């Protein structure tokens, strides 16, 4: 019974670890191909707000923003608060319509 309390105490940490994302380069480190640091520019993708969220649109948003990583934001989802300057966040509603595009 003593070990049950320790196990329960570790569950939140395990759940957070499952939310972690990985990338070839950490934020702020030079891109392996050209030595430049990847930065996301959300202004370049605002024209996609109101469009249907698809894999093809996701690729176009990545290209437009200059981000290396895309994170989809389904309705009512919880997200980690870690900031990544090379990640674009695309939020959408129940109808799969993009409602917001941010970086971080």
The second-level CATH architecture is 2-Layer Sandwich
What overall geometry do the principal axes of the alpha carbons give? Answer: globular
Say how many strands there are.
3
Report the major sheet.
3 strands, mixed
Distance from first to last alpha carbon: 43 Å
Order of helices and strands: HHEEE
Strand content: 15-25%
What level of helicity do the residues show?
Answer: 25-40%
Q: Quickly count the helices.
A: 2
Structural class: alpha+beta
CATH fold-level topology: Trypsin Inhibitor V, Chain A
CATH superfamily: Trypsin Inhibitor V, subunit A
Q: What count of structural domains?
A: 1
Report the mean per-residue pLDDT as an integer.
Answer: 77
The CATH C-level class name: Alpha Beta
What Rg is obtained from the alpha carbons, in whole angstroms?
17 Å
Organism: Pelagerythrobacter aerophilus
Keywords: Signal
InterPro entries: Prot_inh_I78
Protein name: Peptidase inhibitor I78
